[in-house]
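name: query_chain
kind: protein
chains: 1
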Amino acid sequence: MESDAETDGFDMKDLFGEEKFDWEKEWNGMPEFVQDDLQLIHHVMVGFETVEDMKNFSQLVGRNIKFTTKSIVYPLKTNVEKKVWVDES
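structure:
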């Protein structure tokens, strides 16, 4: 059976030489990837009759809403975890 790489016209030998690449061996012991469900539960479209209304709403939700603002997420996440690459080799 051909691998996806071969059927797409890409030969693994071009990338890894004559040695056969064993991805299962390379990935052995890697941690499982878990993706949290980050989808929002509801969306609401809000319209403003005046600039003053927009400014008041902006203050009410604690966000800087401008004419260029397309969307906001409430509440604002301030404790976002910083991701750093660590080379363990």
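note: The first helix runs from residue 4 to 7.
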